[in-house]
Amino acid sequence: MQLLKLHLLFGACVRSVRLFRVITRCGSHGVGKSNLKQSVINLLESENINWNEENRGTLLIKLNGQREFSFLDSGSDSE
């Protein structure tokens, strides 16, 4: 999650970066219930970041010029 947040910050600073592909895998036995995937989705939704599920194990994140993130205000990097 820390690496994803770093990439989001990078994308906010570099205007040419607007899309990220995050590979979360499908979860155990391919049933689509990955804990990592749900954590990423929770972060994206809390930041109002547009995303689509490219397939069961990949999320496509669209920054659309977003420059500020609420996770910078929190002291926790656990999520």
From TrEMBL:
Keywords of this entry: Signal
Keyword check for Signal: yes
UniProt entry tagged with the keyword Transmembrane helix: no
UniProt superkingdom: Eukaryota
Database matches in InterPro entries: At5g58720-like, Smr_dom_sf
Residues making up the signal peptide according to the UniProt record: 1-19
PANTHER family to which the protein is assigned, alphabetical: OS01G0225100 PROTEIN (PTHR47676), SMR DOMAIN-CONTAINING PROTEIN (PTHR47676:SF1)
Protein name: Smr (Small MutS Related) domain-containing protein
Lineage, broadest ranks: Eukaryota, Viridiplantae, Streptophyta, Embryophyta, Tracheophyta
